[in-house]
Specification:
globular, dCMP deaminase activity, metal-binding, alpha/beta, Cytidine Deaminase, domain 2, CMP deaminase, dCMP_deaminase, two-stranded antiparallel sheet, 7 strands
């Protein structure tokens, strides 16, 4: 007899399944909203409804530069590329779920939220964010934000996504 999946694995599996709907060539991300072990919503990243996505129209990339102060006090310039054609999975999840449902809920997301999504989640009513793959570009400041807001923020590393749901990630 096969062992029953724990809740983290169950909900992260669903997030990865949601990510298979994404047409993003760079990073397919899925997110789910859970409250009291009840699934309240799923979402994935992609272009707005009715608008050509990246597979049809190409990525709409912008470059950003961010100054980071290292531990020894020196400035380090970090270059970030991001696609502005897509709405992130976390943003879609917030757009298509009710605020009342989000109060006291947990978000499972395949990838650690970026800075913008973290800001939105910080004001969404969720009390915990669980993710699988890290996002080093924004990790420190996102972790700090969640700590300041008192939102439980954790990565599950001992996890294997369902077969056929993972693509190679392009940062």
């Amino acid at each position: 007899m096969t062992a029953r999946k724990n809740w983290d694995t169950y909900f992260m599996d669903i997030a990865y399944m949601a990510a298979t709907r994404s047409q993003c060539n760079r990073r397919r991300v899925g997110a789910v909203l859970v409250k009291g072990k009840k699934l309240l919503g799923t979402a994935y990243n992609g272009a707005p409804m009715g608008v050509p996505d990246c597979t049809e129209a190409g990525c709409m990339l912008v470059e950003e530069y961010e100054v980071h102060i290292t531990e020894d006090g020196t400035e380090q310039m970090n270059r970030k590329q991001r696609c502005i054609r897509t709405i992130h999975a976390e943003q879609n999840l917030l757009l298509f779920t009710d605020r009342d449902d989000r109060e006291g809920s947990v978000v499972y997301v395949t990838d650690q939220p970026c800075w913008t999504c973290a800001n939105m989640l910080a004001n969404s009513g969720v009390i915990e964010i669980v993710y699988h793959r890290g996002y080093p570009k924004d990790s420190d400041k996102v972790t700090n934000l969640m700590s300041m807001r008192g939102i439980k923020f954790r990565q599950i590393t001992a996890y294997e996504p369902p077969v056929g749901t993972v693509m190679d990630v392009t940062n």
